[in-house]
Write a structure and sequence with these properties.
Elements lengths: L1 H19 L12 H4 L3 H11 L3 H14 L13 E3 L2 H10 L6 E5 L31 E5 L10 H7 L6 H5 L9 E2 L12 H13 L4 H8 L2 H17 L9 H16 L18 H6 L2 H10 L15 H14 L8 E10 L7 E4 L2 E14 L4 E6 L13 H4 L4 H9 L10 E4 L6 H10 L2 E5 L13 H4 L7 E6 L4 E7 L3 E6 L8 E7 L4 E7 L1 H9 L2 H11 L11 H22 L6 H14 L16 H4 L7 E9 L6 E6 L4 E2 L2 H6 L10 H7 L2 H13 L3 H7 L6 H31 L10 E2 L15 H4 L10 H7 L4 H14 L6 H4 L21 E4 L6 E4 L6 H19 L13 H15 L2 H6 L10 H15 L3 H16 L7 H13 L1 E2 L16 H4 L5 H20 L21 H7 L1
Parallel strand pairs: 2-7, 5-9, 9-10, 19-22
Antiparallel strand pairs: 1-3, 2-3, 4-11, 5-7, 6-7, 7-8, 10-13, 11-12, 12-13, 14-15, 16-17, 17-18, 20-21
Length: 1055
């Protein structure tokens, strides 16, 4: 069931990305999207339809895919490949050709009130294996020497559809090229020693303080009170208004957690066991097991009613900010600082490294750390994936060309008040030429290892060339412009170091084993390497200390490992402070024990007993994720109809009768407004996944089952074989016409036409280029939109006229579907609401509520679309009184075909004359050929696209297409069936072009449209014969000019 829920969440995320995607205009490609961003409907479709600027069409085509499909393709992952499941990440590592160590990094989940709890056994404290799943996404990080993700931030922003601030756009400073020299320059910078005063102040304040007092100077009263406040609030939100957490109980709770770090027992409950082999009286005497579990259940750090969904760490952000502030309360009191990443183990007391088929792997969250070289943490932040540059950044210019690691350095250094007091050290993930230059400009001395491709192409001998040299050989080069020195030294491996202040001499000697001499020899080492090795390991020292006595008790909440890590870091920091302040050093175990024993022994045992928890809150019951059916072991009473039922919702824990709920259409909350109903009840979707999990191999099999044909795929392929020759002739004809328009810019030498020149975002309809390709362009084409305006039609008239067509066939009126006062949306809202404008029809399953959603433009094209959408509404109304199981078309294509059939009649010259839009029509052969060409550009041109979308998805669902080849196979199908190609280079790594189509984003099948384009001509012919508007024997009137408007006989057949 959890997998089904994840599928639901994934579909919701993809839909949200599609519905909110915007791009900047071609004339202002770095606009503020909130002010100038263009929506797909109608702005981008209008550009694709009307523009003849080849370059503008390429830009819009690509930008839309970057804004929609590409964002569904893990472009949020700066650092590594993003995975939805842990098993997928493990499989990737196992099959990878890389021999480097890897990190499986858990990304905090997107926030809602339901993401607190994770599915683990929190009682098991001795787990030595990886969990089955994690609440958020996963990235795989390799310790490679090369990193593909070193694009400038401006490029990363393009991938994320984030634009620079207006201030950044005006900065048009030309970058100065480096001036390399082999002369050793004087790189000395201003040095100050204010950190000594800060250290002395710390020692004065902390001298003679106990371990508990030092710890509570960091994990202070304000933090304890904040935790109590938020825990009380969370308990109340869970309908437990009697829960109380005195500060004494909270400190006992903290003491038990710290105690578990050095006194490890396999299961949490055993700390309260009376068995002689596991009994721990200091714990059981301090607090009862039930009380501990009650506090743990309600333990919280944030208000769930005020979630900031842009911050994945919101659940812990306030605690993080308070701890960072307290870690820095005496300022930065060390000279040498190191910046690195630290792994926060996600699950259990397993080793920090796992072996997956012989490969060394760490698993957990990842923190960025600013530490002293001795291991005191000044600042930390948890990696949450992509974070665009803030508009409020005061260093836009210096950051604009920096990779992610360099940006992390600058963010961590915001807490440093006097740069000249300190020297920075970091590894090659962070270092770049531009970072060294920026740090020097700001007064920071810095040294770091650097990757070969981040040296600004400095003319040093290559790494491969130096691998042949003896150990101890080094080369150097200096940039006179930025005062940055690069040194490449051959040790066991070739290492490159960059510095903006240090130098090479004096050389030191290091011992290395010589396999030739069978003894250790002295190897010369440049000075900057010696200083780096002595000062870089601060984060590693902190990590080692934390891991020594890491809290052993687990929790179900996803953020629990991060919280316990913060608690451990606070203890280690307090220990570092004590050893700085006292003459005699204390070992860490003694320090931790002092705090734990104090909290467990200084307070009386909690007497507050476990209170019964309240009922499930209404906010949870109506959470927009829908309901999740599961089968009961025995029949119980349905909450709604009170009949016996075998089903219940495992989220709401309410018995529900699926038969009653879905066949009667009566719901306990059917009185809510339609917009809310759409958002909160996704029954069809939930049941789809429910049955997918229960009865079908994959979603494609479920979709195909609706057609009740075991040979469905074969029949579809045979149908395409029949119509493909007609499409091929149309394609070749249109390609020549397009070549005439665009000349040498359009390459069709391979028989494939770039997909952006057909007047449509997906090249599925070619009607917008009709004026270009009509065989007889000299014939004046009637502007039917102008004709509607001439007859003084309003938007509402478009709907009432379309409705009257159905009434003329003897069908009921449908005015409730487009009545704005009743809740229909027929115009794009102007009140700031962000509405997805793709035309759609809605049945609310209460036998009386049917609605249209459409941002109508005054055009003849939308006039036809209204006829089509009302066909769905009419279908809904015709079957409203039968069991809900049967409320659908004969197959999914019937629904689409009915509206299209009506459209063929409405678009005929005969009908347009009847309603006064066409006057003095001449039915000559030339006019007929032009008209049939228009039909072909709409109907025949669509067929291959209507087919290939689901053929691609069927292969994906079956697992025949590897996720790394999604885009490759997509374009294989488009070239094979549509005979079109991408106008620009596409990548499987960064692009997901199928996601640029709403039906893929919303997980809606598409083959029905292919079939509907076949069915509609069969339906149309039959209705024309029934209405006596066409006789296939006499052929007195051609079929294309048939109009069954006002025909009750046609209406009876349809009904």
């Amino acid at each position: 069931m959890r997998r089904c829920k994840k599928l639901t969440n994934t579909k919701t995320e993809m839909t949200e990305i599609f519905n909110t995607a915007k791009i900047c205009p071609y004339s202002n490609q770095y606009c503020d999207l909130t002010e100038e961003g263009l929506d797909l409907y109608p702005e981008l479709e209008d550009i694709m339809a009307k523009s003849t600027n080849y370059d503008e069409l390429v830009y819009v085509w690509k930008a839309w895919r970057d804004a929609s499909g590409a964002k569904m393709k893990d472009t949020g992952s700066f650092y590594g490949k993003r995975y939805k499941t842990l098993s997928a990440a493990v499989d990737h590592i196992a099959s990878s050709s890389s021999h480097n160590d890897a990190d499986i990094v858990v990304i905090p989940p997107d926030l809602d009130v339901q993401t607190d709890e994770d599915e683990i056994d929190e009682d098991n404290c001795a787990t030595s294996y990886l969990p089955n799943d994690v609440p958020g996404e996963i990235e795989v990080h390799y310790d490679d020497d090369e990193d593909e993700d070193i694009l400038p931030l401006t490029e990363l922003q393009k991938k994320l559809v984030c634009r620079p601030s207006k201030r950044a756009k005006t900065a048009n400073t030309k970058e100065v090229e480096p001036k390399w020299t082999e002369n050793i320059l004087d790189l000395k910078m201003t040095e100050s020693y204010g950190y000594i005063d800060r250290l002395n102040n710390l020692k004065i304040e902390m001298t003679d303080k106990t371990p508990v007092q030092i710890f509570e100077s960091l994990f202070d009263t304000e933090i304890f009170e904040y935790i109590i406040e938020q825990t009380h609030l969370y308990a109340a939100q869970k309908n437990n208004h009697t829960f109380s957490l005195p500060v004494e109980d909270l400190k006992i709770f903290i003491g038990i957690l710290l105690f578990s770090g050095y006194h490890k027992i396999p299961r949490e409950r055993l700390y309260w066991s009376l068995d002689e082999d596991v009994s721990v009286t200091i714990v059981s005497n301090a607090m009862s097991r039930n009380r501990f579990q009650e506090i743990k259940n309600f333990f919280h750090f944030s208000d769930n009613t005020k979630l900031d969904k842009t911050d994945k760490m919101y659940k812990l952000r306030s605690l993080m900010q308070r701890l960072n502030k307290n870690f820095q309360k005496w300022g930065i009191f060390h000279q040498n600082l190191s910046i690195d990443e630290a792994m926060v183990k996600y699950f259990g007391h397993h080793s920090s490294k796992q072996f997956i088929r012989g490969k060394l792997v760490r698993f957990g969250y990842k923190d960025w750390m600013l530490c002293s070289s001795s291991g005191y943490c000044y600042k930390f932040d948890t990696y949450c994936g992509a974070k665009p540059m803030k508009d409020t950044d005061t260093h836009d210019r210096s950051k604009s060309s920096l990779p992610l690691g360099s940006l992390v350095v600058l963010d961590l250094l915001e807490c440093v008040s006097q740069p000249s007091d300190h020297v920075l050290f970091f590894d090659n993930f962070f270092t770049s030429y531009h970072l060294m230059q920026t740090l020097r400009e700001r007064g920071y001395r810095a040294t770091g290892t650097v990757r070969e491709n981040r040296t600004k192409k400095c003319p040093l001998p290559s790494v491969n060339a130096m691998k042949k040299d003896e150990r101890g050989v080094f080369n150097y080069i200096c940039d006179e412009t930025s005062s940055v020195l690069f040194v490449r030294w051959k040790d066991n491996n070739v290492v490159t170091m960059a510095t903006n202040y240090d130098t090479i001499e004096p050389l030191s000697k290091v011992k290395r084993w010589s396999s030739a001499k069978k003894e250790k020899i002295d190897v010369p080492q440049p000075q900057l390497f010696s200083k780096y090795n002595a000062s870089m390991g601060g984060v590693d020292l902190l990590d080692q200390a934390v891991n020594n006595y890491r809290i052993n008790i687990q929790g179900k909440k996803w953020w629990w490992p991060l919280f316990t890590h913060m608690l451990n870091v606070s203890v280690v920091n307090a220990w570092r402070i004590q050893n700085l302040s006292c003459e005699k050093n204390t070992d860490l175990l003694t320090f931790v024990r002092s705090i734990a024993r104090h909290y467990l022994r200084c307070f009386e045992k909690s007497s507050i007993s476990k209170r019964p928890s309240g009922s499930v809150p209404v906010s949870i019951k109506k959470y927009e994720g829908g309901h999740f059916p599961a089968k009961n072991e025995k029949q119980l009473r349905c909450r709604q109809c009170h009949l016996r039922a075998r089903w219940r919702c495992i989220k709401c824990d309410v018995v529900l009768c699926i038969e009653c709920d879905y066949k009667s259409g009566e719901r306990a909350d059917h009185s809510m407004d339609p917009d809310t109903y759409i958002q909160t009840h996704t029954h069809t979707y939930i049941l789809t996944y429910f049955y997918c999990c229960k009865g079908f191999d994959d979603m494609g099999e479920l979709w195909k089952n609706d057609y009740e044909n075991p040979d469905f795929e074969a029949d579809i392929d045979a149908l395409w074989t029949q119509v493909e020759p007609l499409y091929t002739e149309l394609h070749q004809y249109v390609a020549r016409k397009l070549k005439d328009r665009y000349g040498d810019k359009l390459d069709i030498s391979d028989g494939l036409v770039p997909a952006h020149v057909f007047g449509n975002m997906w090249a599925e309809s070619w009607t917008k280029i009709a004026d270009l390709v009509r065989p007889f362009p000299e014939l004046i084409r009637v502007n039917l939109t102008a004709a509607l305006k001439e007859k003084k039609f309003t938007i509402n008239d478009l709907f009432t006229t379309a409705d009257f067509f159905y009434q003329s066939l003897g069908m009921p009126k449908m005015d409730m579907a487009y009545n704005e006062s009743a809740g229909a949306v027929i115009l794009k809202p102007t009140d700031g609401r962000d509405v997805f404008c793709h035309p759609s029809s809605w049945d609310f399953c209460d036998r009386k509520t049917f609605r249209l959603l459409m941002c109508t433009q005054f055009s003849y094209e939308d006039f036809l679309t209204i006829h089509h959408e009302l066909g769905h509404i009419q279908y809904f109304m015709q079957y409203k009184n039968i069991a809900i199981t049967f409320r659908d078309g004969a197959d999914p294509a019937f629904h689409e075909a009915i509206g299209d059939t009506i459209g063929l009649s409405v678009n005929s010259a005969a009908h347009l004359e009847k309603i006064g839009l066409l006057k003095y029509h001449k039915d000559t052969d030339k006019h007929t050929i032009n008209y049939l060409m228009d039909i072909a550009l709409e109907k025949i041109a669509f067929l291959p696209f209507g087919l290939l979308i689901d053929k691609w998805r069927w292969d994906v669902f079956k697992g025949h297409v590897d996720e790394h080849n999604f885009n490759k196979i997509w374009w294989k199908y488009r070239m094979e069936y549509q005979k079109v190609k991408a106008p620009v280079m596409r990548s499987d790594k960064t692009d997901f072009d199928p996601g640029a189509k709403v039906h893929v984003a919303e997980d809606s099948q598409y083959i029905s449209y292919f079939l509907a384009h076949i069915y509609q001509f069969q339906f149309y012919r039959s209705l024309c014969i029934v209405s006596e508007e066409y006789n296939p024997v006499t052929l007195i009137r051609p079929l294309h000019n048939c109009d069954f408007f006002l025909s009750s006989a046609a209406g009876e057949v349809l009904m």
